[in-house]
Amino acid sequence: MTQTHDLLIEIGTEELPPKALKGLRDAFAEAVAGGLGEAGIGASKVQAFAAPRRLALLCRDVAARQPDQSMERRGPALTAAFDGNGNPTRAAEGFAVSCGVKVEDLQRMETDKGAWLVHRHVEPGKPAEALIPAIVERALAALPIPKRMRWGDSDAEFVRPVHWVVLLLGDRVVEAEILGVQAGRETRGHRFHHPDKLFIAEPAAYAPLLQTEGRVMADFEARREAILGQVEDAAQKLGGRALIEPDLLDEVTALVEWPSAIAGHFETRFLDVPQEALISTMQDNQKYFPVVDQVGRLMPHFITVSNIESREPERVREGNERVIRPRFSDAEFFWNQDRKKPLDSHLEALRHVVFQRRLGTLFEKTERVAALTKHLAGLLNVDHGEALRAAMLSKCDLQTHMVFEFTELQGTMGRYYAEHGGEPADVAQALEEQYWPRHAGDNLPETGVGKALALADRLDTLVGIFAIGQKPTGAKDPYGLRRAALGVLRILIERELDLDLLALIRAAAEGYQGTDVNAAGAVASVFDYMMERLRAYYTDRGIGVDVFEAVLACRPLRPLDFDRRVRGVDHFRSLPEAQSLAAAHKRIHNILKKVEGALPEQIDPARFSEDAERALFDRLEALRGTALPLFTEGRYTEGLAALAALREPVDRFFDGVMVMADDAAVRDNRLALLNSLSGLFLEVADMSRLQPGGEG
Q1: N- to C-terminal Cα separation, the chain
Q2: C-alpha span between 282 and 546 (Å, rounded)
Q3: What is the rounded distance in angstroms from the CA atom of residue 688 to the CA atom of residue 692?
Q4: Integer Cα distance of 168 and 151 in angstroms
Q5: Over the stretch 74-108, which tens digit does the pLDDT of each residue have?
Q6: Which of 106, 394, 685, 690 has the fewest Cβ atoms within 10 Å of its own Cβ atom?
Q7: Three-class secondary structure of residue 474 per DSSP
Q8: 369 contacts 460 by C-beta, under 8 angstroms
């Protein structure tokens, strides 16, 4: 039985970038696990650790050495290896020398294609100690680090300077130099609580030793849970609950090795400032967790997570309160200054702010968006005056002090300033909703004005940027077109707005008339791009690509209708009859594709000579009367479920009827029947594109 040992790898560094820590950990674990596997010494389990000053892996049951490998190397053909007298030629002798043996030690391999000299031998496996350093170095070199740095006079490069390396296989150190540092068995504890070295006896002792003696929680998830528990407990003691954004929780986890949550407080007068500004300051600038009451109103408290268990926590609390006070004072000043001017007073200033060089200023964009919003208001039965007012105010808050300082509050501050200025409630709300959804899974606009404005703003950007040839390429999407396209689709589908997407794109293009931007020429490419985003939308929801392709083949122009078709086809595919009918549809598609000229459309029941074709025709006509009204109402799930009853007559037809009969009239009649059957399904989707077993 192969002997195994646990392997510990630790790279000790200066503080690693907090937002990249999890990604570095996962990439390191994946690369090392892959390297061990490729070398034939694979671990049964790899546990990854990540803290501000370390990346570490505990690899369980790593083989002590590679298995021996039977090697076979083929040489020259026998006809070229020996002359007519049976003596070895230079080809045979050269091959033997290259293998390190004599010609007489070579073996012969005979196949049906000829005979060759062959050298067979067993290659002893290398010990794990000889393989591990290179595996670690390759894994470190492959980490996703945008910019590597050097330190001191070393040529080594890494994301941060490296101070120590641990390589421990079982109870033995693996001798190696990694990133310019000699590997050993000593780690470091917390920078302040235990800066001294810690001796690791064996890999399994690593995490417990760091936690009990080093005051370091090396496991990222365990540390995250500890922070979550401490923060929630501290908020509860204050009579509220903490606002805990997952990304912020991850970032804080990456900033501390030994977390200690401390509650802080601020003056209640700051609560007069919109709470979004205060929350943004706490979360983005200070990495604090705000505290809100049970209805979501901000309380005059926050929770910070310290990287040290202080003997004087009051001093830590006071220090954090001192830091937050001037930031809140700035927000208070901006809030008071901005309210001295009405929101619409900023409209003229937008004439001097460039949206995009070729697409003009923000004022020009506002005018285009206003015209499109008014058009959408008519389609959505929304008050035209409110829609136009919201559109003209939509970018005004970009000129305020508050949004200049807190750019992420665009729209939100527009709503506050509109409310302060006495604008109608739906107008004020629309100023914030124009940016919804801001990210995947975010809320969608709720008001009619907000929906119209959100659609208009995104469509104008999509059409304009495509028209000047700057559509997204690869990972580059500086204008957020992927997000904009998905936002339009989500609003139309999830808010059940039954609008023609192609017509909306054309309406957006009309806003560029009279300019040198050929927006009309970009309409088709914008539509196709949005269909690709729709594909991603359904993939994320577990809908098979083949279902999407089946519906796309019919090119529905209304995303809400597209969605109903997708759900109908997805349900149809789950029925027992679906696979047989999809296969029959594919067969019909192939038959009709080979017909030259126009497809026959007129069915003459008098020409039926087989019971199977009569039965199929009768069932088809009966179901047509049931399914078509359902399709017209967009009830595709019910309509397709009704068509499942066609399976039996379709199967009988193909089992007993020769479609391509010698008699042209009979043949055309049968082709017309199949064309009619195919056409009924094509009212919804091209079922021939469905894959067997629901594969996408």
Answers
A1: 43
A2: 46
A3: 10
A4: 25
A5: 888 888 888 888 888 998 889 989 888 898 888 88
A6: 106
A7: coil
A8: yes
235 or 669: which leads in pLDDT: 235
- Taking alpha carbons only, the member of 276, 251, 244, 272 closest to residue 406 is 276
Structure token pair of residue 585: 């549809």
Token digits of residue 62: 């790593």
Per residue in 316-372, pLDDT tens? 999 999 999 999 999 999 999 999 999 999 999 999 999 999 999 999 999 999 999
Residues with Cβ < 8 Å from 266, sequence gap 6 or more? 300, 301, 302, 321, 324, 325, 328
State residue 414 phi and psi, 5-degree precision.
-55, -40
What pLDDT sits at residue 395?
98
For residue 447, CA distances in Å to 427, 450, 511, 589 come to 9, 5, 24, 46
> Which residues are within 8 A (CB) of 189 and not within 5 positions of it... i.e. 6 or more apart?
195, 196, 198, 210, 213, 214, 215, 216
Token pair of 368 as six digits: 């285009």
What's the one-letter identity of residue 102?
A: K
Q: Please state, in angstroms and as integers, the Cα–Cα distance from residue 78 to each residue in 101, 145, 647, following that order.
A: 17, 54, 63
Amino acid at position 363, single letter: F
Give me the phi and psi of 512, to 5 degrees please: -100, 5
Using CA atoms, how far apart are residues 668 and 375, in angstroms rounded to an integer?
Answer: 49
Assigned token pair, 305: 């997570």
Beta bridge partners of 214: none
Q: Which amino acid is at 630?
A: L
Q: What share of the chain is helix, strand, coil (3-state, %, to 5)?
A: 55, 15, 30
Q: Under 8 Å CB-to-CB from 212, ≥6 apart: which residues? A: none
- Rounded to whole angstroms, the Cα distance separating 431 from 453 reads 8
Q: Which residue has the tokens 């199929």?
A: 616
| Residues near 215 by beta carbon (within 8 Å), at least 6 away in sequence | 189, 190, 193, 194, 257, 258, 309
Chain centroid to CA 28: how far?
20
| 3 state SS of 58 | strand
Find out whether 411 and 431 touch, Cβ atoms under 8 Å.
Answer: yes
Query: Within 10 A of 205 (CB to CB), how many other CB atoms are there?
Result: 15
Phi-psi region of 360 (alpha: psi -120 to 50; beta: other; left: phi over 0): left
